[in-house]
Amino acid sequence: MITWIIISIFTLITGMIIIINIKNRNSRIKKEQKEDIMKFLYKKSKENQKVNFESLQLFSKIKTNKLTKILEEMLKERKIKYDEDNIKLTLDGEKEAKEIIQKHRRIEKYLFEETSIDVEEIHDVAEKQEHNEEIKINTKNTYECIDPHGDIITGQETSSYPLLKIIKDIKNIEQIYKITHIEDEPKEIYKKIVCLDLSPFDYIKIKNISSNSITLLTDKGKIIELDYITAGNIFVNKEENEEITKMFEEIEKNITKITTLNELKLKEKGKIIALSFYIRGEERRRLMELGFIKGSLIEPIYNNMLGKDPRVYKIKNTMIALREEQARKIYVMKVNS
Question: Lower CB count within 10 Å: N or C terminus of the chain?
Fold first, then answer.
């Protein structure tokens, strides 16, 4: 009898725990769905696009009955409102959406600066972590207010325009622009942009426009041909700074001398003109401490006898071994010995 009672109590407690866990899980999933909906509505409002039930369902992939209930709850919570067929955020909803987006950008910034996660995977990781209330990140480094895609984490967002739209109205082929944002979705296109070493804060000069591509000169001395689909993920602002104009004049005058560090021959000197944006975190800090800054002279002095990696370079009377993958992200201008 006692054994039966103990088994019954144990079964009851176990069942209650399972029910509580299921409820907590469902509650967490619903919270994440609401937050994703608010982010989507905020983004569409900034793009001046209307959102109806069908477009929201297409984005969220939530079944009709479930989505209806979620929207009813959000109406009661005063997070959303209806303007005829248009679903919009209230002021409270917009405030919460901004907080979620800021947290997402802080996580991206942290992952970019402090981890070795592949750049194209950062968005997906941040997307999962932004809903976790236990995660609180406050970055305290250079460009603290900017995430890896060029977005402002806090404060007033600035306007920028897709490169694809710019070239349709362009009158001056030689115009200089500053990249202000790179869209990280779809991932395949973002990965292509990263491989081309285009990044936020880069300056670019349009050299040619054809029926299916754009030719750019970057501030690192690279000539890049972009297809129109890829160009649609790059946002820019016109740049009319005299110093930047002079910098491009210098680059074009010495274009044949500009290369990446891995391409220098043994004992061939180069002057550093830029480090790739994608040299990140601790690696970037270490290189800069060793003197890898604009204007520093560097030369390869030893090759690995067993292969190409690593290679030894001399900079500011210091010798350092770098892999080809690292040296390929350091831009130099060849100088006469």
Answer: N
Whether residue 249 sits in one domain with residue 173: yes
In a domain, 35, yes or no: yes
Structural domain containing residue 175 = 161-253
Nearest alpha carbon to residue 104 among 20, 43, 175, 30: 43
Strand-pair partners of 53: none
Cα–Cα distances (Å) from 269 to 111, 242, 262, 276, 301, in that order, read 35, 29, 12, 19, 10
Instruction: Tell me the pLDDT tens digit for each residue of 230-242.
Output: 999 999 998 888 9
Distance CA 102, CA 88 (A): 20
Q: What is the pLDDT of residue 177?
A: 93
At 285, the amino acid letter reads R
d(Cα 131, Cα 138) in Å, to the nearest integer? 16
Kindly state whether residue 102 falls inside one of the protein's structural domains.
Answer: no
